[in-house]
Structure formats: C-alpha cells, structure tokens
Design a protein that fits this description.
The protein has helices spanning about 20-30, 50, 70-75, 85-100, 190-200, 225-235, 235-245, 265-275, 295-310, 315-320, 340, 390, 405, 440-460, 470-485, 515-525, 540-550; strands at about 10-15, 35-40, 105-110, 115-120, 125-130, 135-140, 165, 180-185, 205-210, 215-220, 335, 345-350, 355-360, 365, 370-375, 375-380, 395, 425, 465-470, 535. By secondary structure, it is of the alpha/beta class. Helix 1 (about 20-30) packs parallel to helix 4 (about 85-100). The longest helix has 22 residues, at about 440-460. The two termini are about 30 Å apart. Ligand NA7 binds near residues 189 and 381.
Length: about 550
C-alpha cells in the first residue's frame, strides 16, 4: 500500500460508493445518528450503477414505486411516471434525494479507493485513494454495488478496430448517436436485451452476437396514472411493510401451486395472463420452477413457444430459443419488444455459441472466417458482479491478510455483512446476502438499518473492534451453499455463480432463503447481542485511549 504524503482526514465512518447505499448511509449515520461520515466515490456525481449505465433502454426491472427509498417524505413527494422507470428518471430521482438529504457535502467525487488496511494497534481503517489522499475511520463500509465493475472481454485485435467500442456499463455521458451506422452488439443478457430494440431503431444495420440465448419476458411497461400513484402513496406504509415479508422484497404475483398439483391447462392460461400483464410473474406461476426440472421445463417451453410465435424467421427463432440453462437460474430479463426486433429488416443475429468471435479487425469482427464490418461496437458483456469492486481494492485485514487471499476460493462472509479477518468492515448487500435476488433497494435499506443499529450497539458498549468469527462465517457459507444445492441455480453459467468472469471461483454468491427469512435471521442476531461477532477487543479503555489521543 503506497502511503499518501498528506495528513489523513479522520472520520467515524468511511463509505466506498455513492449510489443508493452510500447516500442512505450518509442520511442515516450522519443526519440521524450524528456520525462523521465520509463517502469516497469514483464517479463525478451520485448514482452508482445508475450513474454509469446510461445505455439506451436501461431501466429497472422492479416497479419504481418500490425500487426507491421508503422515506415517507420522499415517497409522498416524488411522482414516478412509469411502472418501470428508465435510467434518466431514476438518476433524476437520485439527484432529487441527494439534494433533499444534502449528501454531496460528505462525498469526495472523482476519488477511487485504491487500498484500505486495518490498523490493529488503533482499530481504525486507513484508506488510500488515487488522489494521493488518506482517510482514517473506525469503520469502513463497502457500498460498492453488485453490478459496478464492467466485465470487458479482450478479443484478439480489439485495439485495431478503428471505430468506437462502448461498454453498456460505461456509457458516454452525452449518449451515442448510431444514426446511419452499422452497429454490433455483443452480449444478450439484460443490458443487451434492453438496448438492442432501441439501437435497432436508430442504426442503419444492427448485428447481434449471441453466445447464450437468454430467457426474457415482456415488461408490459406503461405510464402510471394519477389514481394509481395516489393509491400507492396512501397505502405506502402497509405496502412497504408487506414487501418485507416476501421472498424478493417486493409484492408480486403468488404461485398457483406446484407443477404436480396444478392443472396444466390452467397453468398455461395463467402463464399467458402473466405474460400479458408483466412477464416477471412467469417464473413465479409455479412454486417449484426453480427446484423441479419438470416444472421448469414447463415454464421454459411456454417462453420458447412465445418466441416462435413472435419471431417470423424460423431459423432466427430457433437461435433465440434458450436451451442452455433452466429458466430463472440466470436473472430473468424484462424487455420491451426484444423478440419483435428480430423481425426488422435491418437486424441480424449471429450465433457465436459454436464459433466464437475469432478476432476484431480494423473494420469489424471475424466469426467463422467471415468479416462483419461495423462503424461501432457495443459490449453488453456484463459485470464482474458482487465481488468485483471490492476485489479491485487492495484491502488488508488483520495480520496483514489481503481480502483477495481470503476470497481466493470464493467470496465468504457472515450474513453477507461482514468478513472474518476484516474487523470493522461491513458490506452493504455483500456476497452471501440475498440482495441480488431481491428488490435491491429494499435490501440496501435493510442492511443500512442493521449496520446503523450495530454501530449504535458498539458505541453504547464502548466496543472498538468487531469481527465475524471463523465459525459463524463457516456456518453461514455452508448454509448459503446448501440452499443453492437444493435448487437448479448451480446449473447455469451465471454471474450469480461467478462463471461469467474467467478465473473467478465458482461459488453461489447469494443467499436463497428469501428476504423475509433473512431479515428474521439478522434481527435475531441483533436481538441476541450479536452472536457470531467477536468482541474480544470490547474494552472501554481502548476507546478511551483513542478518544484521548484524537483530542490531544
Ligand atoms: P449479463 O447478464 O452477464 O450478460 C452478459 C452477456 O454478454 C451474456 O449474453 C454473455 O454471454 C455475453 N458475453 C460475455 N462475455 C462474452 C464473450 N467473451 N463473448 C461473447 N459473449 C459474451 O450482463 P448484463 O449487463 O446484460 O446484465 C447484468 C445484470 O444487470 C442483469 O442480470 C440485471 O440484473 C441487470 P453468456 O451468457 O456468458 O454466454
């Protein structure tokens, strides 16, 4: 860790990241509990994922009225225009909240955290940045997001392509005009599926390079009416509370029953209804879609039939049919006119499943000895998800142990909130939490609340160091793996499993017990005085000594 030459800036808490999590941490810890909080943010403004992902068609796939803070003043004041808001509106909302909570005064923008080391003599984190600045704080909170580090494959000859190459997760701030251009999109995950229909409308020609066909369902997005907004606002407390009792942190369609118990004709009719109203409920039609192969095959076939109904060219429809993983075991995409886009005369699909991209050239991309010429290339190739942001920081815990070392065999955590060997470090929506399978804003609120309560507990008790025990972490890691092993999830080469990044260990990165159960577990830990955390350094004298030192 290279030391900065300047005097460290000292705080109670340093937070990495100013997205939904970092902003809420400022509000909760600084404004409501009086901590001195400093947030370090790589971007030039707030927003995190929603700051960077400006590609055409980017929008959330949970209803915006609930993919938002539950702060009552804000939720009463803000009016969402659509059921699933697009990125510009979400960023506008984030800016509205940033103003309301006056968060910017606690944030250092354009500041990338490069290293963080725990100083065992003083129980503080020493945090270094690319701005040659150093920050110190008793607590370090990673609010680094799950989808914040783009995964950019390096194709041979990439540097020789003369046109621009844009990654969806680092889209230029002023947007990109593809009018009249020949454009390639590589990748058909959610980002590709959201952007392809809009790029197709603008470009002269669009070629989509697909390695794995993805299951996607219609968002059936639409404007919200005044009446709908009023009803939601009048009932927010009940709706938000009810959402905490669900598996995904949001109220949704309930299952009809298990595959064996449901009349297939009725189930098919119900799938059809859900497909029309919002496809998101499709995988929840049967309660065993993610555990029973038969149930899964039934739902998957329904979607494949839809593809064949929509896409006019049978060969293209065949290529678009997903067969490589059980439906729902990679994040189900929510689209607006995705399959219909392949009926446009200016759109073509190239499968790179059997014949991968050989290389980039000056003029384009070579597949199967054929050069496709382009003016611009879009990489919709996803993220080094969940752990990527933290692994890029040189984090050193107790006994000088690097986090990269601790996670060499796969990310480990206790409750998705803390890591053994890394005292006083908390991860908001970290690996081993259910966050990526939930309405992530609900998960963020839960984690921030839990961490705030814990910091208050530590403050009250005069504890200056806390660390997840090896045993508690091992139990939690086992529970996360065990839950995944009873499902079909491990069958997919997904970012949930870390499979999309070459060399990343294959570990299921999310807790599958559901948001509601998870909350209950976390609450019980708090109520029982935080078992699983080692407070061996809970000596008031240390705190007193530190106070004296800082005041001196
Ligand atoms: P995803 O879902 O990880 O999708 C990335 C896509 O890019 C996927 O189709 C990949 O194919 C493809 N890809 C990745 N690397 C390559 C290479 N080297 N060659 C060809 N194709 C490649 O990321 P998204 O950004 O779309 O979505 C991430 C999340 O954001 C999403 O789940 C929502 O929660 C929002 P593969 O499937 O690996 O064969």
């Amino acid at each position: 860790m290279s030391k900065s030459t300047t005097e460290p800036s000292r705080h109670d808490v340093v937070v990495i990241g100013a997205g939904f999590s970092g902003m809420l941490l400022i509000h909760r810890l600084r404004d409501e509990l009086g901590y001195d909080v400093k947030v370090l943010e790589r971007g030039e403004d707030v927003g995190g994922t929603w700051f960077w992902n400006r590609y055409p068609g980017a929008r959330c796939d949970f209803e915006s009225e609930f993919y938002s803070y539950s702060d009552d003043e804000i939720q009463q004041e803000w009016n969402w225009s659509e059921k699933y808001a697009a990125q510009p509106e979400i960023l506008e909302y984030i800016n509205f909240v940033a103003e309301r909570w006056d968060v910017r005064r606690s944030i250092e923008f354009d500041t990338t955290v490069t290293a963080a080391a725990f100083d065992e003599a003083r129980d503080v984190w020493v945090v270094e940045t690319d701005q040659d600045s150093t920050f110190e704080a008793r607590y370090l909170i990673a609010a680094t997001g799950n989808l914040s580090v783009p995964s950019e494959p390096s194709f041979p000859g990439m540097e020789t392509f003369t046109g621009p190459i844009h990654h969806t997760g680092r889209w230029p701030r002023g947007g990109v005009d593809f009018t009249g251009q020949r454009v390639a999109v590589i990748g058909t995950g959610s980002s590709g599926i959201q952007s392809i229909p809009l790029i197709a409308e603008q470009a002269a020609e669009l070629t989509v390079f697909q390695r794995t066909a993805t299951f996607t369902v219609p968002a059936a997005n639409r404007p919200l009416t005044d009446r709908e907004r009023q009803v939601t606002k009048a009932n927010y407390p009940v709706l938000r509370e009810a959402a905490t009792h669900t598996r995904a942190g949001i109220l949704g369609e309930q299952p009809m029953g298990s595959f064996a118990d449901v009349d297939p004709v009725l189930a098919r009719g119900e799938l059809e209804r859900r497909w029309r109203t919002t496809g998101l409920g499709v995988t929840a039609t049967l309660n065993d879609t993610l555990v029973s192969e038969e149930a899964n095959a039934f739902v998957a076939q329904f979607v494949r039939d839809k593809i064949n109904q929509i896409v006019k060219d049978p060969a293209t429809a065949k290529l678009l049919e997903p067969h490589d993983y059980p439906i729902g075991t990679k994040r189900l995409a929510l689209d607006t006119g995705y399959y219909e886009t392949f009926n446009r005369p200016n759109v073509s699909l190239v499968s790179i499943r059997e014949n991968p991209i050989e290389r980039f050239t000056r003029n384009g991309i070579v597949v199967d000895d054929h050069e496709h010429e382009f003016d611009a290339i879009v990489l919709a190739t996803g993220f080094d998800a969940v752990t990527g942001a933290l692994e890029r920081i040189e984090i050193t815990g107790r006994n000088g142990r690097p986090l990269a070392d601790a996670w060499a065999e796969g990310a480990t955590s206790y409750l998705g909130l803390a890591v053994h060997g890394f005292p006083n470090l908390f991860t908001v929506t970290g690996p081993g939490s259910p966050a990526v399978l939930t309405n992530v804003v609900a998960s963020i609120e839960h984690h921030v609340e839990w961490i705030a309560d814990y910091l208050e507990h530590l403050r009250r008790e005069g504890i200056t160091r806390t660390e997840a025990t090896a045993a508690a972490q091992a139990d939690w890691v086992e529970r996360v793996a065990e839950l995944a092993s009873h499902t079909l999830y491990p069958r997919a080469a997904s970012w949930y499993m870390g499979v999309n990044v070459p060399g990343k260990p294959r570990v299921f990165l999310a807790y599958l017990g559901g948001f509601s159960t998870y909350r209950t577990t976390c609450s019980a830990v708090a109520a029982d005085g935080y078992p699983g955390f080692d407070h061996a350094h809970a000596v008031r004298e240390i705190a007193d000594r530190e106070t004296e030192r800082v005041n001196a």
